[in-house]
Amino acid sequence: MKRDLDPALGAAADASATTPMVRFRNVTKRYGALTVLDGLDLDVARNEKVAIIGPSGSGKSTLLRVLMTLDPLTDGVIDVDGEPLTHEMRGGKLVPASPRHVRQVRSKIGMVFQSFNLFPHMSALANVIEAPMSVLGLSKKEATERGRDLLSMVGLSEKCDHYPSQLSGGQQQRVAIARALAMRPKIMLFDEVTSALDPELCGEVLTVIRRLGEEHNLTMLMVTHQMGFAKDFADRVCFFSQGKIIEQAPPQQFFSAPQHERTRQFLRAVTEAL
Amino acid sequence: MTSLGQLFDVKYALHILPELARAATYTIGITLVGFAIALVLGLVLAIMRRSEFAPLARTTAFFIEFIRSTPLLIQVYVLFYVAPLYGFTMSALTAGTLGIAVHYACYVSEVYRAGLNGVARGQWEASCALSLSPWRTYTGVVLPQAIRPVIPALGNYLVAMFKDTPVLSAITVVELMQQAKNIGSETFRYLEPITMTGIFFLIISVTFASGVRHLERRVRLP
Predict the structure, then answer these.
(1) String of DSSP letters for B46-80
(2) Fewer C-beta within 10 Å: chain B N or C terminus?
(3) What are phi and psi of A82, to 5 degrees?
């Protein structure tokens, strides 16, 4: 039996088990004349692991960024756990939501970045307990307890007092994962989390993500170039090109029998590079 | 030796030392209070200038440029001699401290701006992803990273501000330099008070600078 990060969540999650955890409805994102996401529709089920692959500039990172509200949407709606993320229902109409509402819905989402983005002036532990203390209002003692648990879960219990500059890339990324988990999210976004790491350190980060997926109830969206990882970890692979999902399928089917020419072309190029 | 003794009367110098020392503490007080105000106000200005609300950002930018581009002397004149005509009456000390504080706040705000621009975008994004409030994002994440590298530049302005305090003598504030001139005009001996004032400025400036260096070392990250 998998565990929720927050034990109190279990019962509530069962009740709404049928609504998708994340639902993109006609989501469009433009930067000036450039359309990065083009009327995208995508449902992600509870605890589903979705790998997002595609050529660079195809909008895959933007998909995560708009979900994390780092970039505003040009058009469309994203529902998180059955609730609109950047909008709220008022008088039967969808209107742009208050920052407070956005923060509340967003707190169900955690994100890990390609460049780690740890706070360099804080120790590993301080990085992890910052948000639980200042956002969730945990006492320093409670937060530290949670922080130490998470750091030992990612195999860094010895490194609590180290600063990011004293850690390897792989260790920094594992701290970043622990930091995101400390908010007990239901959804985790991984944005090319191993792209800045050399192959040796890559493995330790992927192992942590794999373990997370196996042991906890988490919905995961990951943008990745690690085809091997996508193949044996994801429940579904989405192939992005020019702001659209061209093809999506369970990994076995996706990698063995891709339907679209563009997908085949991409997969050929990726395999040749290996 | 004798010629120097005639030129610089050590006994007289020691005699006026207490008066000058008193004026020096006054000057240090103006500097420290003024700089404390400048540090806070400068930060507020820097953040306002970055506002997404364009009218606020533009007004702030205009204010900063206006103050930076006009002489401190005129600003303190206006505060002390002109403002009372419109009902704002202040003591010379208050007007002087406020004037020099606002003047340097504008310089300091540009230093902060450089520091803020130097904080990686990823830090803002990580704060957003963790749902930190705007207040916590600034105080907990961005400012500690923005201020560390600009401490030397801020220290520069502390010393510059200290050395600008003689300007306040124009509005009757008896700071160190004015005290020296007063002593000189009473006794017609200028060499000793002016020399000693110079030494006071030197010692105090060096002390400020080494204090800043000490602070810099203390907050350095591993």
Answers:
(1) HHHHT-SSHHHHHHHHHHHHHHHTS-HHHHHHIII
(2) N
(3) 80, 5
Rounded to a whole number of angstroms, the distance from the CA of B119 to the nearest CA of chain A is: 11
| Residue A274: band (very low, low, confident or very high) from pLDDT cuts 50, 70, 90 | low
Query: pTM value?
Result: 0.87
CA–CA dist B7, B16 (Å, integer): 16
- Crossing angle of helices A124-134 and A169-181, in 10° steps, is 20
In the block, tokens 């020019």 appear at: A242
Rg (chain B; Cα; Å): 21
Q: Which residues contact A215 (CB under 8 A, 6 or more apart)?
A: A2, A3
- Cβ-Cβ contacts under 8 Å between A and B: the total is 63
Q: Which domain holds residue B120?
A: 2-218
Quote the ipTM score: 0.89
Q: A1-108+186-247 — its CATH code?
A: 3.40.50.300
Query: What is the number of structural domains in chain B?
Result: 1
Delimit the domains of chain A by residue range.
1-108+186-247, 121-184
CA–CA dist A73, A78 (Å, integer): 9
Task: Give the CATH number of the domain where residue B178 resides.
Answer: 1.10.3720.10
User: Cβ distance A179 to A127 under 8 Å?
Assistant: yes
Is the minimum CB–CB distance between A98 and chain B shorter than 8 Å?
Answer: no
Q: Could you report the per-residue pLDDT of A62-115, keeping only the tens digit for each?
A: 999 999 999 999 999 999 998 889 888 887 788 888 888 888 889 999 999 999
Q: Do B133 and A120 touch (CB under 8 A)?
A: no
Chain B residue with minimal CA distance to A127? Answer: B141
Closest CA to A53 of A194, A237, A236, A260: A237
What's the pLDDT score for residue A57? 80
Distance from CA of B3 to the nearest CA of A (A): 59
What is the full DSSP assignment across A124-151? HHHHHHHHHHHTS---HHHHHHHHHHHH
Q: What share of chain B is helix, strand, coil (3-state, %, to 5)?
A: 85, 0, 15
In angstroms, rounded to a whole number, what is the distance separating the alpha carbons of residues A196 and A176?
14
Q: How far apart are CA A88 and CA A65, in angstroms?
A: 20
Would the CB atoms of B130 and A117 count as touching at under 8 Å? no
Contact A111, A188 (CB under 8 A): yes
Which tokens is A165 given? Answer: 């500059």
CA distance A241 to A264: 12
On whether the CB atoms of residues A50 and A234 are closer than 8 A, the answer is yes
